[in-house]
Q: What sequence folds into this?
């Protein structure tokens, strides 16, 4: 009996396989180009600025002499502003997402709020700066202060935190909620003891993305009147006398690292360009450290939570 010939592939299947291979090749090439460009740019930044980073650079004030200039007010200002942003934006965003996802009734009003929040996540950052300038600076009279900058960036990250938190909560199976209700848990107990712990990893991912965007923003900070040159530090948040806390720093003028970098880049001379490159390395380091801490917390939460 003659051996049967191997079955021929259908032409449509062959075309799909070829398209899949071509798509993989395109994806790999795109990845190589993107990662290669990032490596080249960061390598050039390191080559130009790493030799400038030392203790004197970190702990000195800006100067018209490049060799004596430092970045102390800029990284202190960035740190304090991110503190205000996190304290205001994260709890407010998570609470709003919990309400919209777990408590709000489905109506045209909630649908309108959801569409608005989603659209606000894509609004250019300078719009938030103009909003903060009119509301916080002119109407409320808070001035160009750390508090206003933190509130501005909190408004900037708020839609991102709300959207990502809602998606993380929505991914929790409904069976977990039903099991909690069957055991007599209230709505609040179900959310606090079951929904939030299981969705914490996804919520932290959204917070990481939001804070990473905020720390490098310049347009809204410039809009509300941040200084490009500042030769003093805000008052210390801690004191030696009761109540050992001071909030005077919230109403202090400020500068941030992106603005300090812009001021150095706009000056002539390679020495100031090296200072800007060093500040860029430190800004990337601050972002990585902040993200690394959040990723570690997320990892620990994922290990503790089991389905």
A:
């Amino acid at each position: 009996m003659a051996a049967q010939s191997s079955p021929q592939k259908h032409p449509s299947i062959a075309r799909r396989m070829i398209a899949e291979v071509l798509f993989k090749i395109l994806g790999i090439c795109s990845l190589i180009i993107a990662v290669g460009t990032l490596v080249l740019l960061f390598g050039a930044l390191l080559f130009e600025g790493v030799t400038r980073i030392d203790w004197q650079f970190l702990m000195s004030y800006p100067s018209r002499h490049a060799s004596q200039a430092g970045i102390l007010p800029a990284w202190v200002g960035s740190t304090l502003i991110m503190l205000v942003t996190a304290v205001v934006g994260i709890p407010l965003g998570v609470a709003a997402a919990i309400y919209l996802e777990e408590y709000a009734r489905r109506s045209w009003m909630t649908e309108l709020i959801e569409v608005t929040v989603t659209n606000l996540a894509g609004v250019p950052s300078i719009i938030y700066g103009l909003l903060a300038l009119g509301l916080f600076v002119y109407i409320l009279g808070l001035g160009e202060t750390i508090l206003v900058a933190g509130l501005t960036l909190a408004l900037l990250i708020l839609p991102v935190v709300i959207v990502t938190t809602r998606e993380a909560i929505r991914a929790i199976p409904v069976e977990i909620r039903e099991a909690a209700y069957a055991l007599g848990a209230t709505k609040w107990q179900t959310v606090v003891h079951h929904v939030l712990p299981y969705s914490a990893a996804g919520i932290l991912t959204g917070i990481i993305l939001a804070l990473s965007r905020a720390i490098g923003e310049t347009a809204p900070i410039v809009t509300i009147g941040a200084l490009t040159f500042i030769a003093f530090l805000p008052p210390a948040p801690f004191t030696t006398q009761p109540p050992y806390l001071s909030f005077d720093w919230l109403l202090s003028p400020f500068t941030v690292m992106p603005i300090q970098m812009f001021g150095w880049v706009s000056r002539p001379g390679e020495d100031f360009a090296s200072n800007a490159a060093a500040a860029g390395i430190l800004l990337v380091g601050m972002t990585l450290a902040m993200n690394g801490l959040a990723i570690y917390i997320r990892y620990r939460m994922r290990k503790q939570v089991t389905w």
Observations:
- The mean pLDDT is 85.
